[in-house]
Amino acid sequence: MQDILQSLGIQATDKPLSGVYAGGWVATPGGETLSSTNPATGSNLGRVVHGDSADYEACVAAAQEAFLRWRMLPAPQRGEYIRLCGEALRAKKTELGALVTMEMGKIRAEGEGEVQEMIDIADFAVGLSRQLYGLTMHSERPGHRMYEQWHPIGPIGIISAFNFPVAVWAWNAFLAAVCGDTMIWKPSEITPLCGIAVQNIVNEVMEPAGFGGVFNLCCGTAEPVGEAMIADRRLPLISATGSVRMGKRVGEVVGGRLGRSLLELGGNNALLVMDDANLDLALSAVLFGAVGTAGQRCTSTRRVLLHKDIAEEFTTRLCQAYKQVNMGDPLASDTLMGPVINEASVNAMLAAVAAVKESGGEILTGGEQATIDGCEGGTFMQPTIARVSKDFHLLKEETFAPLVYLVTVNDLDDAIALQNDVPQGLSSAVFTTSVQSSESFLGHAGSDCGIANVNIGTSGAEIGGAFGGEKDTGGGREAGSDSWKAYMRRQTCTINYTDELPLAQGIRFGPA
Ligand code: UN1
User: Fold this and answer.
1) Within 10 A of 190 (CB to CB), how many other CB atoms are there?
2) Is 2.40.50.140 the CATH number for 269-467?
3) Greatest C-alpha distance within the chain
4) Using CA positions, which residue lies closest to atom 6 of ligand 1?
5) Which CATH superfamily is domain 2-265+474-491 in?
6) Which of 133, 207, 368, 396 sits 20 to 30 Å CA-CA off 88?
């Protein structure tokens, strides 16, 4: 473990680490010192000193200064730096993946998968750096040309969550960087070491070129860091990932200053299994979607809506599959599910399990806290299947844990209505071999989510598509497609190359 930390520039000393990078590491930040804990063992991975208001100001100053130079580089040259960041990540994929596992608790394959997602978005951003296209329009006036162009928007703020402690930063940071923005990152206070390690990796590329201030880091809690960021008019865009409660606060404060926010909040993702589905596929998808990352993805499968004709068979097979799930130390190669992040998550899940029982629902498997040999201090919850009725109140809430609800439905319309009848709108999936059913699910009266899949689970999206959701999920789109537009400002330009000054709409103005 010490080797891994050391290779990521995290020295094993008694001295706490600086959690603030403002164009250079701040030797002694002024905020509190917090420990980072391994959720699988309860052991302390290291201590990190948070930023205070003065450190935050230093980050803004660094980002502002770097912005003036960075925005003047041609975008493909900015892309070249991001290509090198992708290369640096490739060289550290195993180590950074292992740190994600140690600090967040997801298994090795998923930790490395997360770093792969960073590499993928770096590659995407490199290509994008030559494709920041604007449109041209035909002017209604003779001798006039009209077009739109995209400019860097300024230093931006990125607030990320514990469950994807490195990838979600990269989705934002690498796109923003090729777009010409600089940034300040506030990682989750639960996963500061991942933030420090990523900062060290990109520093290898950016510092020698004098561009250290493009990516800045300010570890901290809502006060003083998060609240300062969202209220700060110098940051025209705040991209935030996390709970609906947090997102509402960000949206309110950023909206109050007419800034732009990009919100990626909670999901409550349903997977529909129709009577004509390939049940083997559906089974694997539910397993990965509900058990993967111990149910702590915003895209995790929370509700499985089963057509009445296959409900019993599918339920039996799913329960059997759950019994095979090897829960344990996420660093071990044969583990399929690690711990949940902390005691609060354990308690939230136990409360949901109790509510299932109270409502007359059944816990078909799991439902309890678990102790793992060699990981006695860890926060483990058994992967759990609950069978509930359509009106169970927690079907409308996101419990961020390995708990999936099974509900029986009559037909596709019934399933679509139930799936949409929640406040959240992130991801959704239908398993069917019928064109009518899949097209209905994808049609205007189908899924109301930002992501709608057919014969693919709710989680594990590729970076090439726009990622995000509707309703309480916040409406933002990150990663692929044209999500880059959020990180730039659009300018419409009209050029007159005649000696006349005709007005639009044919208006004549002036002395007759
Ligand atoms: C998240 O949980 O915040 O689609 C992001 C997925 C991953 C990203 C999840 N690519 O499951």
Assistant:
1) 18
2) no
3) 93
4) 460
5) Aldehyde Dehydrogenase; Chain A, domain 1 (3.40.605.10)
6) 133
